[in-house]
Write a sequence for this structure.
């Protein structure tokens, strides 16, 4: 079992460069299926979920060349099947973007049910509703989702019953080459939704309104090739901002879009950190004790659920009592791990009450999922003594070279590889 060993109590300082956004990269990799010519994707994060998506694209028959560690050239013209067969599709969430992309290209798609972090039930009813509205007949059998649009795909009005990132992006992928106009109402406004729309528009799509709650897509017949750079990762940036505050540090987070970080900045300022925004940088300085605050996760531009575990770890040693509400996912299980480090947190359904303690103490803990794992790393950096975080493969699904980046900021952390652990899938 691979783990991170952290000697806590070191103040982080210096600069850290943020990688491309995982949750933008996954749909954009799938979207290349829709192009009629090669596409170059730049600023891809070198994380294992992206490695799985690229592997699935290759299994479909696309030719993928690595120009460097973060840049691929995809030739989708050689794709000759509408079926994703590889079992690794079940290990990540983003594999379901191949449904929309293959449906848009072939009028049919067969894809395994997706996996991803375990937050209890993760319904896909809004995806299926959108496929059906656009002309697809959906069925599920033996863990496979099959969608066939025998009469072709036609634009439609689709109202999302919940704000969902995944269903908004899958609808865009399906509708981009459908005949006529598709209107998505109550659409997700996350930066990665905008990035997918921008990528497709660069290929010649006609998508307007991404970033608002109404997206209008006029179907086009062809999509050309293009070069496109993925936006910076909002959650990776936010995680380093919280890590800086947790260690009383002074960290400049580089290659970010500061507006994407507004909700995180606001909460850190409320807690007493000082934040300076540059054009594509955010500096976090924190040289006194942190104050309590309340946090409620919301769809963008609200506070992201993917930052909830990290901010809860920070509040666990802030002065006073904080209340965290997360109605998006059932993702408070990691609180038991924080308790091992001395945190005083009680959870009632979708609410956690955090009584700030003076300091956390190092312990052996587990990364229960990607963001919960990041929270344990933050707790370990701030704690006294030694923290061992196990199951780090979850963290490496979405954080590129996290150990190296933290060491660059002065953290005392190393990765200890167990001799019998399976090698991580590498990009390139
Ligand atoms: N929902 C439905 N029906 C659906 C789809 C979603 O009821 O058909 C509900 C969900 O149960 C949830 C809410 O809508 O309560 C939001 O779900 P959403 O569809 O937005 O989530 P997702 O697309 O499955 C993506 C990210 C998650 C992130 C959420 C919310 C990817 C691959 N995953 O998931 O990221 O938490 O949006 O922002 O983009 C992570 O990166 O660690 C991660 C979990």
């Amino acid at each position: 079992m691979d783990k991170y060993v952290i000697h806590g109590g070191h103040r982080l300082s210096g600069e850290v460069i943020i990688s491309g956004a995982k949750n933008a990269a996954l749909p954009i990799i799938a979207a290349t299926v829709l192009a009629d010519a090669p596409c170059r994707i730049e600023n891809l994060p070198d994380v294992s979920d992206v490695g799985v998506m690229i592997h699935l694209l290759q299994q479909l028959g696309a030719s993928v060349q690595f120009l460097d560690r973060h840049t691929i050239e995809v030739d989708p013209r050689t794709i000759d099947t509408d079926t994703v067969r590889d079992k690794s599709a079940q290990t990540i969430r983003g594999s379901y973007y191949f449904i929309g992309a293959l449906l848009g290209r072939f009028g049919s798609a067969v894809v395994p049910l997706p996996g991803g972090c375990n937050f209890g039930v993760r319904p896909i009813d809004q995806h299926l509703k959108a496929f059906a509205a656009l002309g697809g007949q959906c069925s599920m059998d033996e863990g496979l989702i099959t969608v066939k649009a025998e009469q072709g795909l036609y634009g439609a009005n689709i109202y999302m019953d919940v704000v969902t990132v995944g269903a908004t992006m899958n609808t865009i992928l399906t509708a981009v080459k459908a005949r006529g106009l598709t209107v998505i109402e109550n659409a997700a406004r996350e930066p990665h939704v905008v990035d997918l729309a921008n990528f497709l528009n660069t290929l010649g799509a006609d998508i307007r309104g991404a970033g608002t709650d109404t997206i209008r897509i006029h179907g086009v017949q062809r999509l050309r090739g293009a070069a496109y750079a993925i936006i910076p990762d909002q959650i990776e940036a936010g995680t380093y901002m919280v890590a800086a505050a947790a260690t009383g540090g002074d960290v400049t987070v580089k290659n970010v879009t500061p507006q994407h970080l507004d909700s995180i900045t606001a909460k850190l300022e409320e807690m007493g950190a000082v934040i300076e925004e540059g054009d594509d940088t955010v500096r976090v300085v924190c040289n006194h004790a942190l104050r309590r605050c309340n946090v409620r996760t919301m769809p963008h531009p609200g506070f992201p659920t993917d930052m909830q575990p990290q901010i809860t770890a920070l509040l666990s040693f802030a002065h006073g009592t904080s209340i965290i509400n997360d109605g998006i996912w059932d993702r408070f299980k990691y609180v038991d791990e924080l308790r091992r480090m001395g945190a005083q947190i009680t959870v009632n359904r979708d609410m956690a009450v955090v009584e700030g303690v003076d300091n956390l103490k190092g312990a052996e803990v587990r990364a229960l999922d990607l963001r919960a794992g990041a929270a344990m790393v933050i707790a370990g950096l701030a704690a006294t003594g030694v923290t061992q975080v196990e199951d780090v493969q979850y963290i490496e699904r979405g954080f590129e070279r996290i150990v190296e980046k933290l060491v660059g900021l002065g953290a005392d952390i190393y990765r200890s590889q167990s001799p019998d652990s399976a090698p991580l899938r590498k990009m390139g």
The two ends are 24 Å apart (CA to CA).
